[in-house]
Amino acid sequence: PGGWWRLADAVDYMRVASLAVLDYAAKYRQDLLFNRYQSGRQVVDKYRSGPPYAYFVPREQTDPVAPVELLRRLAYNGIEISELTEPVTYGGRVHPAGTWVIPMDQPFAELVRQVLEVQTYPDLREYPEGPPEQPYDAAGWTLQYQMDVRVIEARGPLTADMRAALRPVRGDPRPWDDPATDAAPFDVVPGIGFDDHPVAAGIVPVAGRIRGSGAALVLDPAQNNSFRALNLAWSEGARVSFAPEMGAYVVAGLSGESVRRLAGSLALQAERGSVTGLSLARPRIGLYRPWTASMDEGWTRWLLERYGFAYSSLTDADIHAGDLGARYDVILLPSERSASLLRGHAEGSVPPAYAGGLGDVGVRALDSFVRSGGTLVCLNQASVLCMERLHLAVTNAVEGLPRDTFFSSGSLLEVITDGAHPVMAGMPERSRIFFDRSPVFRPTERFDGSVLAYYAEEGTPLLSGYLLGEEHLQGLAAAVDVRHGEGRVVLMGFRPQWRGQPFGTFRVLFNSALFHGEVADRAAGTPGFWTPPAEEEGGAG
To answer: Which of 81, 274, 335, 537 could form a disulfide with 380 if both were Cys (CB 3.0 to 4.6 A apart)?
Structure first.
């Protein structure tokens, strides 16, 4: 019938729902427990007689903490994890001792399959011979792709000798109310986190180590914790530089004890070397926080906090005040549609202080900020606003294409990246990105900048999920760095921090947040890295 809906109503609604669940569980306790038992037994039987029989997860990874982040989450959801006590050969590959193994003949194995298998969206039609019925939310979420973790699926049964070499992972759990500040500094979860679980607590990364000699600490951006180390080093007064020839960050001025502490607590695989590279001051970062409550901004804020970045939240009033270059080096815009960023809440729908958005005044302030030497980082949909309103020499090649011609909602695609550019430092040549109704960039003839990542000219870039119209991506850019006046605009046609899951692309966000000053001024990327494909007649680009 309408009327007021207050906080107390919402609380009552949830209280009644919770009591109903408890009442149902009390009345039908035996049935629920027996059905859960039957379900678990059926899952065990299923994976004793059919693939996947197990998953192998090597300890040696590009980022040694990434597999730990993945496996700790599985363990916390009831998955039993084992490790090899000796090398075993399976499928022509030798798996060394210490390799983690997830045997699938266990009650909650369906969760493992759901998050590790490749999602293939079925060809559904609204009616026979009709248009495709498309997903409304994420269609591909394969965790090892998102987290850049090597996982090997066992398509045949494990032999008796292999099972004899397995030892269940166990650790010493901490009480959930332990006052420890951070039980496992190497993972992104604060406090006790996963360490109150006996299996999760036993999953730890390869011990941190530092090789070589020299006055400086060289940090590899392929390891996410390198950025946490950078921010801790700045806090201790260290000097930081970026070495383009290595694609690495160099830290000088730390004591030997500080270096050992960073490597040990963060499980860093680092090197010592000479002090070299382009000087990099700690950036003054501003994260735009619209009053329309952006989830994308929330994920970005959470990541910046967890990895120790110093930043300020920027409201509309902060941006409208202008003179942004005096206060910030880098400004991040979350992924929101242009209309939402520009207009925000309608006048009269909220108190006046929270009405409106960036508007023309905010766009002019951002334009002035970049032209005077600042770096503006546009995440996913925010790129569309910046391309249009800052009049950048880039177009969105899929703008205006109907859903029955081109569509992809929340899927994992492959791109080719230029690891020589500072924004892509640490990324593998073939990288996986989370594409979510994202723009696809076609630089125009007057483009001044660098393509950072692009889709292969042939074949489908789809790895997991749903993609219609792959030909509209082929050969085009997924990320670009645009010179604009004295500054830079970084346009990302993907979501590097979506729901805090794609650990494999966090470094793109972090590199972008550090992309300023001399590092940005001197950045050029690899000559000839990208060649524009021929433009189709009548194409959207």
So the answer is: 335
